[in-house]
Amino acid sequence: MRRSTAKRRRVRRAGIVVVVALGVLVGLLALAAAAVAALTESFARGERIAAHVTIGGIPVGGMTAAEARSALEAQLAPAARAEVELVYPGGSLRLTREELGARYDLETALSQAQALGRESGLLDRLRTHWRLRQGGVDLPVPVEIDRGRLEAVITGLSPRVNREPRDAKISVDGDNRLHKTPGQSGLVLLVPETVAAVSRALQNGAANRVDLVVKQKPPNISAQDLADLQVVLAAYSTPYHTWQRDRTHNMALAIGKVNGTALKSGESFSLNNTVGERTVQEGYRSAPIFRDGRIVPDTGGGVCQVASTLYNVALLANLQVLERSHHSRPVWYCPAGRDATVYWGQHDLRFRNSLKHTIVILGEIRGDRLWAAIVGHADDDYDVELIRTNYARFGGGSQIIEDPTLPVGKRVVVQDGSAGARATLWIKVSKNGKQIRYEKLHDDYYPPKTHIVRVGVKPKTPPSGTAPPGGAAAPGGASPSGTKPGPGLQPGAKPPGGENGQKPPAANGDKPPAAPGNASPRPGRGAAATRATAAGRTQPPGVRVAER
């Protein structure tokens, strides 16, 4: 009994001790909390940044905002001037972060630093101070991007980055050997996508390289497209006078537009459509042309030589000629019967790719010659001969007209004379030694023109008496008109051209030659073919014919 009572007393005394201890502890904690609260409240009312705070790794704890700003500016200035390499295919460019429109937002960073430990709730402040004492807090430095400036910089890079695709090319050297140059893809800088990529990189202070966003633009003609161009099917060139600069300019301009023209099997070529109308606005100059058999200046003179050169190379490649007209008089740079004239709205040169594979027409000025070639597949390579028969050249004679209205002895040329010619052109096509085609292409006739001169004479005084109605015959058998026979013609004989410019007989032109003794040497190699057709030169009365 006594033991039980003593035990209860000990328990009560222990409980009292515990209660007192707890009361003391609570009081101490309350005093500590009050002290901490007082300290945090005092800190919150201050101006300095909490201890153990860094911004971008730069210590700013215990500093005022102004002191922290100075420290940050000193430490971040080199970083702001750090270069970023902008890389694109085939090159690169280095610009500073400032030049790209990047700026460190120190105001936001300092505001965030000053807010640490100054939260509105006591517990939040206590937690923040606990974090600071445990390991500190590092705040990032926000990067502000001037998007307008960045877009302007990237857009300005477009001319440097962009490049047009380069087509694969094919060329022929002086020995008719084929050479191929591979093409290259073009580049297009995608500005919005690149601005986004650079912006992301600038947000990362450690980034020093950005790949610009570009799109590749494939060439129109790739190396694969040239795979079937294996041999030179034909080549031909004509001489020209280099001192005729305006005419040379016109030829170079026209052949440049033809150069590189590709024709798939079955497609047709038109010189007028390819070259366009010969006008000053298109860059053509005035140069001599034939008009009604006379030589006169006109815009685009010289393009006919391009037509003649292409006509020959088309025949030698054994293409089907759809339209061709010869000149009104022979030309010096091409054999009679193998020339071609063009004039906008009147004459064109057209031919069709009658081969099985694609061909490409090449052409350029080479020294003092105008050169053209046709390249294609080896299966379309034929041996072609152009054979000219029935060729003749004749003068147009001359005529002197006595004119009493002119001073005595004065001579005035009324019409320049020119020689005429005729020729028949045949084509012979062979493959592996076997003749495939042998036929006439056309008969060409170039009418001569009489050289007419008016000569001043003294007016005649009629003798007394009445003259015979028809007048007296001229002495020596001369005609009253004063006509002088041309070279190679006997007095009183008619020129081979016939009266009034009528075409003479073909002189066996419809019969193929017994042997190709008059064959023209083949300037290049040939290709598959069909028969060429030719347009005549007959014009209705009153129509003026012009050839360039």
What does this structure look like?
By secondary structure, the chain is of the alpha+beta class. The protein is built from ten helices and 30 strands. It has helices spanning 2-44, 65-80, 106-115, 122-134, 147-156, 158-161, 191-203, 245-258, 271-275, 303-316, and strands at 53-55, 58-59, 83-88, 91-96, 102-104, 137-139, 143-145, 169-172, 178-181, 186-189, 209-211, 214-217, 231-239, 261-263, 268-270, 286-291, 294-299, 320-323, 350-352, 359-366, 369-376, 383-394, 398-403, 411-415, 420-431, 434-446, 451-456, 483-484, 519-520, 546-547. The strands form ten sheets. Strands 13-21-20-14 form a four-stranded antiparallel β-sheet. It has a four-stranded antiparallel β-sheet with strand order 26-25-22-29, with no helix packed on it. Mean pLDDT is 79; it is low at 467-510 and 515-547.
Name the features.
alpha+beta; 548 residues; elongated; 4-stranded antiparallel β-sheet; disordered C terminus; single chain
Radius of gyration: 49 Å
Number of strands: 30
Class inferred from helices and paired strands: alpha+beta
Largest sheet: 4 strands, antiparallel
Helix content: 25-40%
Strand content: 25-35%
* Low-confidence regions: 467-510, 515-547
Distance between the termini: 148 Å
Shape: elongated
Mean pLDDT: 79
Q: How many alpha or pi helices?
A: 10
Q: Strand arrangement, largest sheet?
A: 13-21-20-14
